[in-house]
């Protein structure tokens, strides 16, 4: 028994934040320089009263315009921005989406590697006979965690959601996975306060870093140099291990999609690994880094723009917060 | 690597004008172009040409170009 990725949609919130907006807010911030370096022109920003769960709901409903939702028998929801500590967001989504009650539903907390892990979970559930049609949702609203004076992180991250169906198939279209974790990097991308280790602190001191971005321990912190060092170290090895496990080579693959962290980082990785630019997806111009949603957005856009077609073999590679990373090859 | 070649690569990484005069005592922290974005370029440069990694704390300790070369390892320069 096998499984395949049979449908995919995404949703971006209406409000946008452009480089020109940022340039007006931060006088030493150059819109041209930002776009040239990180490949981002605008990001979509979730509404004040809107959450990741709401975005996931909208993405799933786009997919249900053509996929029969009564067939869904498991919901996997990846987010680091849940509505509540409890209950489980996926349970709320089961009800809001009008899905059958005789289904499984779980949340999992991962960032940029989340979509790859979700595919691994879905494949496991299907090949074990636990489920037949898995709805994999990823939704992220990092902008809610970012201090309004943190120009660096406001430049990089955007909000969004994606919905995918992985269904049982006679032949496997989701091949071998290589997954990795290095928890020693746990504090390199973190929201320190707000969990149970350190509660939200209304009096937390706002500090300004050397490059002029301000944040407190209630806000998202990213140690950019350390994250880049991690990706330089981990991603080439991850790609090599995934190719080996799938007994394939870069030149045998039709397309390669990395998590869209920022264009500088992934372009450097592309060159370091030796991937031809014509089979490498790179476009975050109008989305920014949407964390666990960049890969499904990229798959959908690649298909819409005819960069991939049904039957193509695609390497997908996720890496980020945790540190957590993973890759696999899928036949689209 | 010759120090002068390193200066040229650093000028390129920092996107300074090509006629910028750089030497070992150039104060990086005083340069407007030395920011969180350009540090990515320097990390890439060090990885590509020296196969080394500097962590965020090491970057904090760097003021001049010479400090940077010492962190990379002075044995790498002639």
Q: Please state the overall shape of chain A, judged from the principal axes of the Cα atoms.
A: globular
Weakly predicted, low-confidence segments of chain A: none
Strand content of chain A: 15-25%
Radius of gyration of chain B: 11 Å
CATH class descriptor name of chain B? Mainly Alpha
Stated plainly, the CATH topology of the largest domain in chain A is called Peroxisomal Thiolase, Chain A, domain 1
Reading the helices and strands of chain A in chain order gives: EEHHEHEHEHEHEEEEEEHEHHEE
Helical stretch tally of chain B:
4
Number of domains of chain A: 2
Would you kindly provide a written description of the structure presented here, covering whatever features stand out?
By secondary structure, chain A is α+β, with helices and mostly antiparallel strands. Chain A is 30% helix and 24% strand. In chain A, the strands form five sheets. Chain A has a five-stranded mixed sheet, sandwiched between helices. In chain A, a hairpin with a 3-residue loop joins strand 14 (313-320) and strand 15. The mean pLDDT of chain A is 96. Chain B has 78 residues and is mainly alpha-helical. The model of chain B has no long low-confidence stretch (mean pLDDT 90). The chains are: A alpha+beta (332), B mainly alpha (78). At the A-B interface, helix 2, helix 7 and helix 8 of A face helix 2 and helix 3 of B.
